[in-house]
Write a structure and sequence with these properties.
By secondary structure, this protein is mainly alpha-helical. It has helices at residues 2-21, 25-45, 49-74, 86-110, 130-140, 143-164. The chain is 74% helix and 0% strand. The mean pLDDT is 82.
Length: 169
């Protein structure tokens, strides 16, 4: 199982690096989909099936299709090649190395992975599942923010269509 964790983590990291490394925005968006799929596999491996499936359906599916639609609709010009000075590259690598060292130190001192995660407290009895409880919360307490996110995505899409429309002479 540890092999699968490292495999899926590597897929997620490779996708994240591809988002930053590719100059073409469409390639970056596809790399983000790969990263989302790696994260979904990690969630599923942690027995968080609902979050893993939502990661695939919502983020890798709906949101990324919307992003790709908007990127392709904007018809962005090709980015010209940039040249970085040696000092910039060295400082960037030193920053990354310092961040990784800090992250490793914090993870070692925190004891992550040494204790079990407590189970989610059940309020409706033993037959109530996590999916049922999350569904109840989404459709009772958090319905308004979910509707607002949907409206914001619709307004953003309409705005991109209006901005990318070509003027006819």
């Amino acid at each position: 199982m540890i092999f699968l964790f490292y495999l899926f983590a590597a897929i997620a990291l490779a996708g994240a690096i591809g988002v930053v490394a590719f100059k073409n925005p469409v390639s970056s968006a596809f790399s983000l989909v790969i990263s989302f799929l790696g994260l979904a596999a990690l969630f599923i491996q942690l027995d968080a099936y609902l979050i893993g499936i939502l990661q695939i359906l919502v983020y890798a599916g709906a949101i990324m299709v919307l992003f790709l639609f908007i990127i392709m609709l904007l018809d962005l010009p090709a980015e010209e090649k940039r040249h970085f000075r040696g000092a910039t590259v060295i400082c960037s690598l030193a920053f990354v190395a310092g961040f990784v060292a800090l992250l490793v130190t914090v993870l070692k001192r925190s004891g992550v992975g040494e204790r079990m995660i407590p189970e989610i407290a059940t309020s409706g009895g033993s037959d109530s599942s996590d999916i049922h409880r999350i569904g109840e919360l989404l459709f009772s307490q958090y319905w308004f923010p979910i509707e607002m996110v949907g409206i914001l995505l619709l307004v953003a899409t309409v705005g991109v269509v209006v901005l990318s429309r070509k003027e006819l002479k």
